[in-house]
Structure formats: structure tokens, C-alpha cells
Amino acid sequence: MRFPADVPSGGRRVVLRLRVRRFRCLDRVCPRRTFVEQIPGFTRKHGQRTERLCATLASVGLALAGRAGVRLSAILGMSVSRSTVLRLVNALPEPDIPSPRVVGVDEYATRRGHVYGTVLVDVETRRPVDLLPDREASSVAGWLAAHPGIEVVCRDRAPFFAEGVRAGAPQAIQVADRWHLWNNLGDAAERAVARHRQCLRVLLPGSVGKAQAMADAHEPALSGETAASPWKSDRFANRIWASHATVHAMLEAGHSRRSIGRQLHMTHRTVKSLADAARPEDLFTVQYRFNRATAVDEYKPYLDKRWDEGCTNAWKVWEEIIPLGCTGSYGIVSAYIRKKRTSPRPVTAQPPIPRAVTRWILSRPETLTDTEHIRLKEVLANCPELEALTGHVRPFAEMLTERQGHRLRRHDLLLCRVRVIFRAEPSANAYRIFHVLHCGRTQQQGDK
Known about the structure:
The protein is an alpha/beta fold.
């Protein structure tokens, strides 16, 4: 008796009881001592489910894979595990896919930067055809040679794919798909924008004067009685008075200065200054350090000029003022530059990065915001080269997206044909190019 599971009927579980014959072999040497008869199209060897239930679960697995397929199967009354669904899918025979006429070749990554493979897609049906374990030219050539009916190969600009197509399908026309054309155009446009980085320094109108006024308002005075000195703050003064009283009390009790510094966690220099001061007020008369005359005072205009030019490296500007006669140390220059870093700086419009400008140029004009329109207009007004680049990119983008290849000029088509010849024969000379253009063998490839 066998009890194979079957497809539910009317929402109810179906229980099958099959009586089949078991045959036994009387030959002791026979490896198959016993076997059971099968019902064709209904049961299989060692099968716990009927053929139609296996086919139904395999169809659910193909559509939804493991976990989602299990959830749907439970609703339909066919409770199985996700491993069973995937096992049934893997047991299906490979589909008989006809040889494609137009195939797309591209790479995919199983581990980005380390392990790559090749995917082949039927461009007409937009379905994957095969996966190759690597992206070598020999693998692509072998696959193409095994499928002789290929007429067009749509690939990216990788040289190993071009070599594989030439070796495996020399009769096929090699074309670049629109995505790779647009991607290559975007990379070239970004490199062109990066070469004109200096033209991207655009300031918003009126931002400089307003920012300078704000900086002047927040700039502390460093001379005279109006200096914002921390020596005159109440919080600091109370701490000085308390420390002065504590140090003098311990001195009168007979403690040494070293012992006082160890107990109060003060340096020897701090204990000495507190002990030498007869009154706490004597410590407040110390001149604020930024008011002291230094050896770089007469070179501060030069330092300010270099700061405005964008040079914020203290070591570099110190090396520049030494030949001018400055005798100050690097520490004084570094302190002055550090003060300029912490002081409020003029708020100016940040220049756009090359990638942002490239996105503005490559985007449809109607998709840009008003701010992006204004900033792009300012950039193009400052750089005629980028304006010319925009004038070339946007008509080409319109031809590419709207598939208006007839708008290409005649000499552009001629250049395309010449490039096709050079890729097929890198050592071709002018006579060879002239001969191939007139024989018509490459003319159709150039048109494509």
C-alpha cells in the first residue's frame, strides 16, 4: 500500500490509497533485491507526492521562490518546507531555449572588485540565456561558437568582450547599447568638468559683504581695555583667588612646592606663579597673550592675504615669510592661523562639485529645480567650454533617448565607420580604410 500526497480538491485534503505490486528477485547476486511497480504519470520512485502535486509546487517555487512559495502553498492546502520547494525547482530539467538572434553581453560581480562573471541576455525577449563563471575572452568566444545563429552582439566597451566576439562570432555585428553609451558620455563629461574646476567658483550676489559684516561684528578686539580677555571673567577670577589662598595656606603650614603640586595636581610652573604672587590681583595684571608684540606682526597682512587665497597650512606660510626676513618661530604663525580657523569666516556660496555640475548637464532641463537652474546658468556663464559641452551633450541625449539616429550628420557617420574599421583592424592604414568604406562590407556595420 502506498499513500502519496496529492493536490487538494475543493479545499479539502485528498488521501490516496494505492495498491501496487512488489517484485522480488530470487538471484542472490542481484543488487536490486526488490522493486515496486510505478503508475506512469502519477507516481515516481521513492516519491511521497504525486506528479501533479510536484508540478504544482515547482510552478509556485518558480514564481515565488522558497519562503513566499511556502506561504502561498499553505494557503492552498499544500503545506511543505522551503527546502522541498527549492529542491523541486532544482530537479526541473533545463528549459530548451532557442538560440538567440540578438544577444547582450555584460559582466556581473559575485564579489565586487575580486570575482566577476559574464551574463548573456536575449535582447529581443529580455530574458537571461546563460551565465559564464568568468569574463575571459575565451569563455565568451566558446559560447558564441556553440550558438552560430547570432547576428548582433550588444556589449559594453570592454576590450576582452570585443576580442571574444571577434573570435567566436566574426559574422555578428557588434553594437553598444544605450546604457553604456550614456554611461561613457557621463564619465567623459565629468572628466571635462573636473578639468575646469576653477570655473566653478561662483559666489551668490551680495553674500560677501553681508558675511564680512557678520565676521567683523563677531571679531573680538585684541587691544586696549575692550579686549575680551578670559583673565577678567568672574569664573576664572574666583578660581584664581581660591587657588592662591590654598597654596599660601599650605606654604605657611610647612609644605614644599613640590608637595603642593602633587597634592593639588598642579604643575611646578603653576605653583610657582601662585606662590610668588603676593596678592591674587597681581595675577590679573598679566598681559593677554594675543596683545603681545610678536616677530610676525609686520607680516600679518601677508598671512591674511594668503589665507584669503585659500592657503591654510601654517607650515607652508611660515616657510614663505622666512625668506622675507621674518625671525618668528613656527609656533607663533601656527597660533595666528589657528585663531583665524576658530574665528567666524565669511559665509560664501560653496562652489559646486564636478559631479553635481555633470548631473545638471546630463539631466533633462525640466527636471532641474530653480536653484539648480540658476547655479548651472552661472557656471556656464563663467566657462564657455562647459557651455559648449552642454550644447553637445543635450542634443545627443535627445537623439539617444528618442532614437533619432537620422539626425547624425554625414561626417559623423563616416567617423563611426572609420572607428569600426580601426577596432576590427587596429593596424589599418588610410588606403585600407578607403578600400573598406567603398567595398560595402563595413558600411552596414557603421550604420548600425
